[in-house]
Write a structure and sequence with these properties.
single chain; 350 residues; alpha/beta; TIM Barrel; eight-stranded parallel barrel; three-stranded antiparallel beta sheet; 13 strands; globular
């Protein structure tokens, strides 16, 4: 009840100040804490990560790795921090974050605002030895003359500190970034990531590396990206980032704002895209489902569509961080009701 009231109070603030207030509150210990172990039926493995529950926090919430442990304590099975770029950047002009309350959606054009690798790295060093899976979502600076080199720099600087890495080439808010999803550009990107990974790994095991793609792709792109991800040793594909589409169903006064749309209106589009990737992958590369999840039923739909884990963020704007435990409980009940012994067993059954 306390956290629902706090969420309502914070929502009285404009969107971006509300987010900063949430981060500050979490840093002072004012977040939900669960001591309840996940139901064993929620166990899963995705891209080499062994998770005790499949519900992850998507990047964007904790850009600078300020509160990963607070979000793990709230019940998330894994937390992805970032997006982090090599150099600090202030992002796009404000206002750049909009609640579409009538649509249970968010539009953002933040532009990878973050404190840069040095700050991010220090925080990951400070949490060494702590339990819980924390990933780093890597991006490129807006003014970079070699964006691929930015991803390699992020990988190199954070090697040994993050449990996994995500190569984010799908944000619509950095001009030209999505061009890296084109065939030749992706070959260049993924081959250089593979080379850096080989040099960094040596005789030690490599942390998983994931590729995050846009929901605004056609079937030919889906099949080609799936093949490229496999060719260059990506461990999983994350489907998807925000969309530049604006469904006719949107009601909010902010529906015409530029940027990426997330939240409830993205669910159907991103789930259909997930199904297309699952068909292209044929079980040969793992998938993570993101987009519009606000309930156990929707998390379960993503899993049955082919995901071995899911991530959410926008729903927290409306329901608060306590939502993760509701999703965990509901998801466990649905898995058991259908006779599944684990998330992995249920993945792709549709």
């Amino acid at each position: 009840m306390f956290y629902k009231a706090a969420t309502k109070l914070i929502r009285a603030l404009p969107a971006e100040p509300a987010h900063r207030a949430t981060i500050k509150a979490l840093k002072t210990g004012l977040g939900p804490v669960t001591t309840r172990r996940p139901d064993p039926v929620l166990a899963t493995e995705v891209g080499g990560l062994k998770l005790d529950n499949p519900v992850g926090l998507a990047p964007g919430f904790d850009k600078d790795a300020e509160v990963p442990d607070a979000m793990l304590a709230a019940g998330f099975g894994f937390v992805e921090c970032g997006t982090v770029t090599p150099k600090p950047q202030i992002g796009n002009p404000k206002p750049r974050l909009f609640r579409l309350s009538e649509d249970k959606a968010v539009i953002n054009r933040m532009g990878f605002n973050n404190g840069g690798l040095d700050v991010f790295k220090k925080r990951l060093i400070a949490r060494r030895g702590k339990s819980g899976i924390v990933g780093a979502n890597l991006g490129a600076n807006k003014d970079s003359t070699d964006r691929v080199a930015d991803y390699v720099t992020g990988l190199t600087e954070l090697w040994g500190l993050a449990d996994y890495f995500t190569i984010n080439i799908s944000s619509p808010n950095t001009p030209g970034l999505r061009d890296l999803q084109a065939s030749d550009a992706m070959d260049d990107l993924l081959s250089r990531i593979q080379e850096a990974r080989t040099e960094l790994t040596g005789d030690r095991p490599s942390p998983p590396i994931f590729l995050k793609v846009a929901p605004d792709l056609d079937l030919n792109q889906v099949e080609r990206i799936t093949q490229q991800a496999r060719t260059y040793g990506m461990n999983a594909i994350i489907i998807s980032n925000t969309t530049i589409d604006r469904p006719d169903s949107l009601k909010s006064a902010h529906k015409g704002e530029g940027g990426g749309l997330s939240g409830a209106p993205l669910f159907e589009k991103s789930t259909q895209m997930l199904k297309e990737f699952a068909a292209a992958a044929e079980g040969r590369i793992d998938l993570i489902g993101v987009g519009g999840i606000s309930s156990g039923a929707q998390a379960y739909a993503k899993i049955r569509a082919g995901a071995k884990a899911v991530q959410l963020y926008s729903a927290l704007v409306y329901a608060g961080p306590g939502l993760v435990m509701d999703i965990r409980r509901d998801l466990a009940e649905r898995l058991k009701a259908d006779g599944f012994n684990s998330v992995t067993e249920a993945a792709g059954t549709d």
